[in-house]
Design goal:
Elements: E1 2-6, H1 23-34, H2 42-71, E2 76-81, E3 84-93, E4 102-112, E5 115-120, E6 144-153, E7 159-170, H3 171-177, H4 180-197, H5 200-205, E8 207-213, E9 216-218, H6 223-230, H7 233-241, E10 245-246, E11 252-256, E12 259-265, E13 271-278
Parallel strand pairs: 8-13
Antiparallel strand pairs: 1-7, 2-6, 3-4, 4-5, 6-7, 8-9, 10-11, 11-12, 12-13
Length: 280
């Protein structure tokens, strides 16, 4: 997957809109130096407070987010395929202007299972938040693989903020590319994400039935019992950290204590979860 946004790499700068805060200073300078009139110091003080305040908030926020990324405290990571995405353009009358101008808003976002991420394109008070404001606008196709680093910000009404984002192609594109390593990694990421979320619909879609459990065949109607028994915190951690082993017969295995997750490719070239084995 490609790293498409990283708050840790964002430079400290100033807010362009904060230049409006210098208007009182400009008026004061005009009165004082061009018209040679006495002018109160209130106006330059107001300008300085507004300019420093607006930019100070942005600097504080950027440094706070970068510190969170370094420490990992309060940060969550969601991995998996995009299950739904949207790009909605709306226009409404801008009543702050005297003309018949309309304000255009682009609402975007995507779901990864039960996790939802949304934003208004280019609308963020801080460069430490992803809002798809880059020189090239990103598109989020269904089934594309993502890794989202995020946190709920108590300083902004617990808004969910994306502070690092990796984006990869849909699994079908990886299969078509003929790159087995890419396809295998995308599948494992999708499976581990669905497993951690206990998303039974996604897990069933990534499983081949009948499924072998200790030598016995299970049907899809019995899958809920299977996932309830498997989806423990220890198993989730193992799937996220353990390197798979490729066997000579083409199987891919992940060893978690005495439990073996077995995956195989189907006739369509797609990996599927096919068996739970016991490691003696």
């Amino acid at each position: 997957m490609e790293l498409v946004f990283d708050a840790a790499a964002e430079p400290i700068g100033f807010v362009p809109a904060s230049l409006f805060a210098l208007l009182p200073l400009g008026f004061w300078a005009y009165e004082r130096f061009l018209r040679k009139r006495a002018a109160t110091m209130v106006l330059p003080i107001i300008s300085a407070v507004l300019f420093l305040g607006i930019n100070g908030i942005q600097v504080w926020d950027l440094q706070r987010v970068q510190a969170m990324l370094r420490s990992g405290e309060g940060v969550h990571v969601t991995r998996g395929p995009i299950t739904e995405s949207w790009h909605i353009v709306s226009s409404r009358r801008d009543w702050t202007r005297s003309s018949l101008a309309y304000k255009r808003t682009v609402s975007e976002g995507f779901d990864v299972g039960n996790e939802r991420f949304s934003w208004n394109a280019g609308d963020s008070f801080s460069p430490a938040t992803f809002s798809n404001a880059g020189a090239k606008s990103l598109t989020f196709a269904k089934d594309a693989q993502v890794e989202v680093t995020w946190f709920n910000d108590p300083a902004a009404d617990n808004t969910r903020r994306i502070i690092r984002l990796k984006l990869g192609p849909p699994m079908a594109a990886a299969i078509a590319s003929g790159d087995p390593d890419s396809h295998r990694q995308l599948f494992l990421t999708a499976f581990a994400s669905a497993f951690a979320a206990r998303d039974t619909l996604r897990l069933n879609a990534l499983t081949r039935f009948p499924f072998l459990f200790g030598g016995e065949a299970l049907q899809e109607s019995q899958a809920d019992t299977l996932w309830t028994g498997l989806a423990t915190a220890a198993m989730q951690a193992c799937l996220n950290t353990t390197k798979p082993v490729l066997e000579a017969d083409g199987a891919m295995m992940v060893f978690c204590s005495q439990t073996i997750f077995v995956f195989r490719k189907g006739e369509d070239g797609a990996w599927r979860f096919v068996e739970i084995g016991i490691d003696d």
